[in-house]
Amino acid sequence: MQQPPPRRKALIVHGGAWDIPVDERPEHERAVRAAVDAGWAVLAAGGEAFEAVVAAVAVLEDEPVLNAGRGAVLNRRGEVELDAGLMDGRRLHVGAVAGVRRLAHPIRAAQAMLRERPVLLYGEGAETFARAAGLDLVEPASLVTPREEERLATWLARERERGEPSPAGGNPADTVGAVALDGEGGIAAGTSTGGTLGKPPGRIGDAPVPGAGYFADHLAGGAATTGHGEAILRHGTARRAVELGREGNNAVDACWLVVRELEDRWGGRGGLVMLGRDGTIGYAFNTPAMAIGWRDDETPETVVAGLTRRG
Questions:
Q1: Half-sphere exposure (Cβ direction) of 159: Cα atoms closer than 13 Å
Q2: How far, rounded to the nearest angstrom, does the alpha carbon of residue 262 sit from its chain's CA centroid?
């Protein structure tokens, strides 16, 4: 009996949506290309979608120019607090961690959480779980970079000059994320972030929350967001995009519809990447730039978008 042809594979990643300085954009492009290469290698070898997402996001967490893992933005006390979430849309499993300070790759801790009863663990509890799962803990100081120390000092100085809290809107909102579709039709989405510059200790944004920062359902599609976390949390941006796909909208239209909603109804800035259940690719953003990279079976090389003009 002749075997049916394999389904279309696809992968899309992002390095964040904000006013990325022009001189940093080549580094953002290099980072998303490397992430696509890592995730695509997993898919090409027959790996599952959630494994490809983890591989891609882990590469982004290693990039100090991005707001995830080492080099993430600092809270008001000068500390890194990292969040990550992952959803396997075939099994509808979710794993997430928040407020971790001793994990270089929070996305791998989220992966370890996929089949656990708790969906999300915070802080020391998440780190204890990760260590028991075989992940190495690092010194928090090893995740702090001079660039982010300088950025925080400037932010705090401006706050003192104004005599009121500094707004987060003009600072990096470059949560990283990925969505993958494997050859068996499985789909997954995941995100990782350091949150917002100068955030109060303990603040949790959209990145580890399923339905807000990420969502995947193999019957409808998958999405990963970035931007103003509080607005994305209220809107439920990722799930909203996937539900629009379920209703028959293609990935491109679904992305633009939710970005307009995010801005018009919730006052949010940001963007998202999405795959339809058939592997169609979509993305949209309402910020000056967003680092995006994608590849599918019909595209032999990684395509990079979002760094030369608005989405």
A1: 15
A2: 17
Residue 131 CA to residue 102 CA, distance in Å, equals 10
CA dihedral over 232, 234, 238, 244, signed as positive or negative? negative
> What is the topology classification, in CATH, of domain 15-298?
Glutamine Phosphoribosylpyrophosphate, subunit 1, domain 1 (3.60.20)
- Scanning the structure block, which residue is given the tokens 């401006």? 158
Question: Residue 169: its pLDDT value, please?
Answer: 44
Please list the active-site residues.
175
Residue 255 tokens, joined: 């992305």
Quick one: which of 29, 117, 4 has its CA closest to 306? Answer: 29
Residue 73 · residue 67 · CB < 8 Å: yes
pLDDT in tens, 233-265: 999 999 999 999 999 999 999 999 999 999 999
Task: Give the list of residues 6+ apart from residue 302 with CB closer than 8 angstroms, or none.
Answer: 32, 33, 36, 37, 40, 293, 294, 295
The β-bridge partners of 179 are: 12, 189
- For the chain, give every domain's residue range: 15-298
